[in-house]
Amino acid sequence: MDMFKPLDLSKEDQKATNIENIKNIEKVRCLIIGSGPAGYTAAIYASRANLKPVLYTGLQMGGQLTTTTDVDNYPGYPDGVTGPQMMEDFKKQAERFGADVRFGIATAVDFSGKKHKVTFDDDKMIEADAVIIATGATAKYLGLESEIKYAGMGVSACATCDGFFYKGKDVAVVGGGDTAAEEATYLAGLCRKVYLIVRRDVMRASKVMQEKVLRSANIEILWEHQPITLFGENGVEGVTLVRKKGAPEEEIVNIKIDGFFLAIGHNPNSEIFKKYLTTDQVGYITTKPGTSKTNVCGVFAAGDVQDPHYRQAVTAAGSGCMAAMDAERYLSELK
Length: 335
Prior knowledge:
Layout: H1 12-21, E1 25-33, H2 37-48, E2 54-56, E3 70-71, E4 81-82, H3 83-96, E5 100-102, E6 106-110, E7 116-120, E8 124-133, E9 137-139, H4 145-149, E10 155-156, H5 159-162, E11 170-174, H6 178-188, E12 193-198, H7 207-215, E13 219-223, E14 225-231, E15 238-243, E16 251-256, E17 259-262, E18 266-268, E19 299-301, H8 313-334
Parallel strand pairs: 1-2, 1-8, 2-5, 8-19, 10-17, 11-12, 11-17, 12-13
Antiparallel strand pairs: 3-4, 6-7, 7-8, 9-18, 14-15, 15-16
Helix pairs in contact: 2-3, 2-8, 6-7
């Protein structure tokens, strides 16, 4: 689920006019957009630095972790924690230090001047000296109704996050690129059996990654298969596939699995910033190496919106810390 509404670039002039007509304007020193581990951590550090940050949560309060049941790989939770509870803990800690956490969706931005302008819900404008973008990324799904039904009950978009729960079990990974190959190889070290479901008769993954998959004895590649639906009583127990869809030899296949992992990519929630900020070809915001700085002075990016590689709660939190520290240094130079 997106953290904000994408800007319709075809209506850019109309948006600009709307921004000019907004009367409800508030000025702040530090604005944080997004409420996952990166956003809340940035709020904690910014609050402790007396930046009086205002954080807008976006539509999905807590980000992708709110769709995760158990989190066992975040330091400080020896007995594990649910994703929603962890994000509530982050939020409370940020508020304890004075962060102003608000619900709202960013709908337009203007980073052309010294004051950075962000419009929320089309009727409220924040003018900020520094902006930290922590809007995250959205995992791509196949669009099956059963994906929603079994969310947190066998369906996952992160093998590193959830693979441990399927130790010794049978799972399936959907995808044919490097991400899918990496996820399948990782799961092969934990699970009894890994089915790699590939839509075509070839993989898009690099030769090196394909070789890793082929060397894994417990990975079986299901070529030219596409998932139709998932089934199970109290969670995922299997997946129904169609083999060679549309061909004369088309057939329906059922396989028993305990976990269903999607590895078909992510969409960084960066659309409304692209007019001003440099992004890569996928849309991840580009930051200067070793920092959270974007190409616009006073605008910083943290978390999955600028991280196409790791996409972990702990790395997002670390980059949120970096962004707050970079923002504090930037603001101190403005005095």
